[in-house]
Write a structure and sequence with these properties.
Blueprint lengths: L8 E9 L2 E8 L9 E6 L4 E7 L6 E7 L6
Antiparallel strand pairs: 1-2, 2-3, 4-5
Length: 72
């Protein structure tokens, strides 16, 4: 999945849980977060999208924040 290749993940998987597409992300430990974190994203998970103008005309960037409970 190209959408997760740029993220700092140890691993990821996707499956259907109760007929709902689900993706599980395992975030790698970093200096600021010394433990790995597992995060599950499902279809219709609430997110916050922030759009910002890029340096070039007609270009923009997006930052997506997923509103989830994180388990260790």
């Amino acid at each position: 999945m190209a959408c997760v290749q740029r993220l700092e993940l140890e691993s990821f998987s996707h499956e259907k849980v109760q007929m709902k597409p689900t993706m599980t992300l395992v975030w790698a430990a970093t200096a600021t977060h010394p433990q790995t974190v597992t995060q599950t994203v499902t279809l219709f998970t609430p997110v916050i999208c922030r759009l910002a103008a890029a340096d070039e005309p007609m270009k923009w960037t997006v930052r997506i924040t997923v509103m989830l409970t994180i388990s260790h």
